[in-house]
Amino acid sequence: MKSKISIEDLEAQRARGHYRLAFVPQLENAFRAYYLRFMRRHVMAAQIAATALSLLAVFLELVVVRPPHTAELPFLAVFAVGLPLTIAASAVYLRVNQSLRWLPVVSSGVILGAFAATFYLEAVYAQLGLEYRYQTTTFVLIFAFLLLGLRYFQAHVLAFVGLAGLVTTYWLIELPAALFAQKLYNYIAVATLASTAGYLQEYIVRSNFLDRGIRRHQALHDGLTGLLNRHGLDVHSDKTWRHARRHRTVVAVAVFDIDWFKPYNDELGHPAGDACLSRVGACLLQHTRRPLDSAARLGGEEFAVVWYEVNEQSAMKLANRFRMAVEALRIEHPAPCAEYVTVSGGVTVLAPASGRSLNAAILAADTALYEAKRNGRNRVHLAADVVREWPVESATGGAEA
Q: If you average pLDDT over residues 78-85, what whole number do you get?
């Protein structure tokens, strides 16, 4: 299971900066997956651009330049056969493999193949006493650094491989020193510009990754307690609902309210009230540790929790366990109505496939909560209209373990 990225991780990384294009390990793995998804459209654009450039090169070579037949065949083998087949294969990969896990490997193979084909044509043309005038290595470098989903340092390795291939090829074909120096300069100049653009591109994508993660966390979480807010509960619980429908099991929903919180807040002030809410929220978070469980602050002093695959007996045990944990915090209450801060709760259990929504479940649990309030507070009540589509024994009560 992937480790969950916290808001602290994101904010700490943003404060440290990422000029070296590297995050701490738990963020780096998530970023690499994000980067591949982000670059999907770049790769699709690269496929279109490469197709257009290859067709244009074939047209120019056959209609305008008209080289000897001995040069025409190798050129067509590369631009009319090899390149289109490579583009088609990469397009199939993009459609078949949505995760793009192997995209860097595929793109590296494409770049190395493009370098090899380019140097092959350079050698063929040189043997025929012709000059290969197409700036193919320029295109290859731009594609490597900007368009094929390779990270900056991966593209740099390929650029050095291309440089080694270029030097070897020109040495084997005995290119004149002056022309060799010019071509070497052109390659290094283009590589430098492309690598600069590639660095800036990855730096910006990394910044966006951090900013999006922080904004998403802020949109889904309560700033005071760190719990989910109501929107975050809706988003997270949607996964729980779908999972429960698919596996034909039940979900428990509980709503809690801090007893006599208004007198506490009025007597001690808002800072003390906020501290109390934070401690209760942290306590609730300890009782929702499984991936499909969730805890939220609904507003004010009201909290909610969703437990996946928990029957009513287990739900009542979990709710009472939380109630007793809050009481064990021994947060002194200044008003004469209570010695310590306590909570009351309402619990309902339902089968999501029955058609009941999270809103309906919260309403049922809220009704049970106010029944607990009317009966003396510091207690938990089970809703009267518990509904389930399958026998309760189908639920394992796994959260209690």
A: 93
Distance CA 2, CA 21 (A): 22
Q: What is the C-alpha to C-alpha distance for residues 71 and 374, in angstroms, rounded to an integer? A: 93
What's the domain range around 313?
230-400
109-127, pLDDT tens digit by residue?
999 999 999 999 999 999 9
Name the nearest CA neighbour of 298 among 322, 279, 281, 317. 281
How far the first Cα of the chain sits from its last, in Å, is 19
Same domain, 147 and 259: no
* Long-range CB contacts for residues 108-111, cutoff 8 Å, separation at least 24: 108/150, 108/154, 108/158, 110/86, 110/148, 111/140, 111/143, 111/144, 111/148, 111/150, 111/158, 111/162
- In this structure, what token pair is assigned to residue 297? 């602050």
Banded pLDDT at 387 (limits 50, 70, 90): low
Q: Is 193 helix (H, G, I), strand (E, B) or coil?
A: helix
Residue found under tokens 């809103």: 359
The CA distance from 323 to 345, in Å, is 8
| Per-residue confidence (pLDDT) for residue 388, from 0 to 100 | 47
CB atoms within 10 A of CB 160: 11
> Each residue of 201-212: pLDDT tens digit?
999 999 999 999
Token pair listed for 7: 């808001």
CA 118 – CA 43 distance, rounded (Å): 21
Tally of structural domains, the chain: 2
Q: Do 99 and 190 have their domain in common? A: yes
Three-state DSSP at 355 gives: coil
